[in-house]
Amino acid sequence: MADSPAVAVDALRDFVAHALTTCGVPEPDAGKVAGLMVDADIYGYDTHGVFRLRQYLARLRDGGCNPTARFSIAHETVASAVIDGDNGLGHLAMAAARDLAIKKARTTGIGWVGVRRGNHAGPLALYVRPQAEAGLLGMAASVGSANHVPPYGGTDLLIGTNPIAFSAPATGPDPFVFDMATTVAAMGKIKTLLQQGKDMPEGWMVGRDGTPLTDPAQSSDGFLLPIGGPKGFGLSVAIGLMAGVLNGAAFGSKVVDFTKDTTSPTNTGQFVVALDPAAFGIGDGFAEEAARVFSEMRASAPLPGHDRVRLPGDGKSAAAEARRENGLTLNPALRRDLNALAADCGLDAPFPEDEH
């Protein structure tokens, strides 16, 4: 990584957008999706950013994802809605859900917007950070785009990584932004290790015999482990009910593995929430009180051998600004993959120095 020169954010965004247009995505949509994908890398969610371009292009090329989708509102109340993503790129429907949830929260105090017939949309942090930056609380969750987890104690793959994210405003440089999978590790991390030729740590996956699995090339033969054992399993099921069943989206055996099956619609389900503290009579006081509590936590003396206490989201604003100014450093394996994708799309290699 240290030997890889940084790539300008604008150049990377333009390349991703051009690659998407070669698969029939209209330029405005391609630009919006490319912007969100690069934002994922800017904020440090590199397993869910530009790294995912190969998967998205494969589904667009093979018919599993609609390049010219036009999302619509399938059902709506004053505080809630369900968006039909028309099987398009997931970022488009989720960005619309986020914006609509914020609009409703400004009017009613809360906005809850679900998505059906969506697709993988990158990290959920993209759809909760704007709420916190606007002085609101945010939440989002999704049914995973493939099943890698059995029900606790079982052996049938019926649950995904089912991520969930929260955000909250706080006075200071960084809002609280917490984005996690309900498994010990996100599948994106395992895919990244596979691309880089590295092993997984023990405790991420087990084989069908229950023994630790560390070879990411064998991940399809094993199970991802839920966080906290049965507690993580229960949380994952709850997310599946709210993001999947409630929206008329896939859950359980109806989930399509969007990597292995590039021709079938996934009907991915998600939801985005925005909550206005003013609806509870606290308004701007929430951010001030949150900052006070966070300061107490950061001031807690660390245990021997531990770094100082940090809150989710700490340092991300400054790191993101530095990446916007200085560019993104992508690992060599990803740079080679993007060059290969460029050749497939008939585009100039974004990293020509890596071709030799």
From TrEMBL:
InterPro entries: Mal/L-sulf/L-lact_DH-like_ah, Mal/L-sulf/L-lact_DH-like_NADP, Mal/L-sulfo/L-lacto_DH-like_sf, Malate/L-lactate_DH-like. Residues 305-326 are annotated as: Disordered. Coiled coil: none annotated. The keyword DNA-binding does not apply. It holds the Pfam family Ldh_2. Keywords: Oxidoreductase. Belongs to the LDH2/MDH2 oxidoreductase family. This is Oxidoreductase YjmC. It comes from Marivita lacus.
